[in-house]
Amino acid sequence: MMRIYHDSNGRILYTLISASGSTFPDGDFIEVDHSDLGDLTGWRVVDGALVEAPGHAQAQLLRARAETCLDKGELLIRLVGAGILPPAEAEDAAMGIIPPSMEAMMTSLPPEVQTAARIKWRTDAEIGRTHPVIVSAAYAMGLSDEDVDAIFGVVAP
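The structure corresponding to this sequence follows.
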């Protein structure tokens, strides 16, 4: 068992894992099975129960998206597999060519952003889930955040 010590507002102060014959400090705590607990950041104790703070899961999802990258080749293979990009366009994209299905989206960007996006697409070996070209292309193609998460392998917490 694990004791989770908290203050009067439910903010977790520290945790202790019990062993038989252990003695513990005084204070407000709850006992939980620690076998399935991970990081308790973003959790609180409310009415004697461990609960996730509002917005914590969303923050974890945004962090996972920001940290997720794919090799450009792997991304293109997944886009073909998902039926989003035709194989011929994926092969051109692997050489740094902007696929025709993305050209309209690219030309709709402001000139300075368009130039940067074209350069980044041609030169980046890894493409992040939050890469500006990915975000813009997903919007232009009508893909949801969940669709893009699935392509990149981002799993909601």
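The chain has a mean pLDDT of 84.
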